[in-house]
Amino acid sequence: MSARLRPALSPIRTPTRDEAALAAIAEHVERTGIGPGERLPPERDLAEQLQVSRSTIREALKRWEGLGIVEMRKGSGTYLKVPVSTASIHMPLTIDRASDVATLLHTLEVRRALEGEAAAICARRATGEQIAEIGRRLDIMEAHHTKYGDAPEQDWEFHQSIFRATENPIFEQILASMRDAFHRFWENPLDMPDFAGRTFPYHRVMYDAIVRRDPDGARAAALTIIDMVDEDIRDADRRRTR
């Protein structure tokens, strides 16, 4: 067979040093039983044990932070936010143009597919303790919105608590991969006061459906929220470009 007719093969991809570091850290977390809320070993110790630079460890942990897996607290250390194991799937998503309306609408299409199903699964599967945590996050979000007129961070934590209650870590990781884009957008939401404020009552509707163990009701409320945000983005963009 001539070289021209041979099937094309792609080169074997060698993991980058930070990917290899994350795999090793995940193995350490699993082996030692470090759980959410607990601190990881210091960057210096990780670098020495893995024989890599501290900058490699820091870049690796920043990737996890971007996915919502850890929280890096200045002067305190890095804390695990969700369970991690060697079987975990991490799906970093790069969205460079958070101010691009088309990009935001694309991410909303993905969220529509994910959040409706996540809410339905949560209504079927969440434990009493998890439902109580969702309710606590909702109370915090509503109080912040009443006092300040917005609550982007609190809203995100509310939705994260629903994803977490599905007991399917892939839901939470995919949503976390979109976090930066939406947070940058919320810093300047198309100059629209109280952007998406009309969605806030439907968060309570969704929570009430979860409490009732009503998957269809929870799904419907989640989709209503996404549809309203979609409409508000389109309306604000039309006014801005007139």
Automatic annotation (TrEMBL):
Signal peptide: none
UniProtKB keywords: DNA-binding, Transcription, Transcription regulation
InterPro entries per UniProt: GntR_C, TF_FadR/GntR_C, Tscrpt_reg_HTH_GntR, WH-like_DNA-bd_sf, WH_DNA-bd_sf
Pfam families reported for this sequence: FCD, GntR
Ranges for domain HTH gntR-type: 15-83
Molecular function terms, GO-annotated: DNA binding; DNA-binding transcription factor activity
Protein name, as recorded: GntR family transcriptional regulator
Protein species of origin: Inquilinus limosus
